[in-house]
Prior knowledge:
mainly alpha
Amino acid sequence: MTQRTTPRWKALIRIGLDRLHTHTARALYRFAFTKSDRRAIGILSCLIVLTLFLRAYGWVSPAKEWNITEEWSTGKVFRRPSAETTTLPRHETERTKTDEAQPPRPNTYKPPEYMVKKKFMVELNQADTFDLQEIYGIGPTFAKRIVRYRQTLGGFVSVEQLREVWGVDSSLLERIKPHVYLNKKAGITKINVNNTDLKTLKRHPYLDYYQAKEIYLHRQKHGAFSSVEEIRTVNLMDSGTFSRIAPYLSVE
């Protein structure tokens, strides 16, 4: 008696169905619901179906259209009219139209003087380091550099000269300008070229050693200068340097 064998393709199908059944059982086990869960889902489904049924026949209106608010303190329920159905009295409507027709009034309110923050200004040639630090953007380091350069220079004749202070760029200069000014009565420390020595001349930032030496030698050779304009004829003295140094030189 011969034993019947199952074809190979049938065995493969059976194995595949077993695996599918196993994975399906695992998935259902993971998402299995308890008896309480199924009861809650059933009740919620019934409420949703009932609500849709009542809404479909117009027996229930949504609460948003009625704009219902509850007063929890008294337990009363009030129906507040929506914005679309709100109507103003006749006199209120006329007042609103009159206000819309009139142009807006300009704001003429002026605060008291003690409430207005005054603009801080300093005189550049007389301000000390504490005054300069009141300007936004200037700290102790920049204040010391400005005062030190002012003493070396002999005073500022233009606000633009702040650009020559080490570290002051164009943006910082534009920020400082509205807060500084120059008093024409404030004297500039001038150098008398007829009695000063070479060391004092070359110390000025607008003169180098060779230009200061030529001024000194010209005075030794031709005598005292009769005017500041005569310094223009000194060797190595170009027009740009002369225009910068002239306010700081004198012959008296």
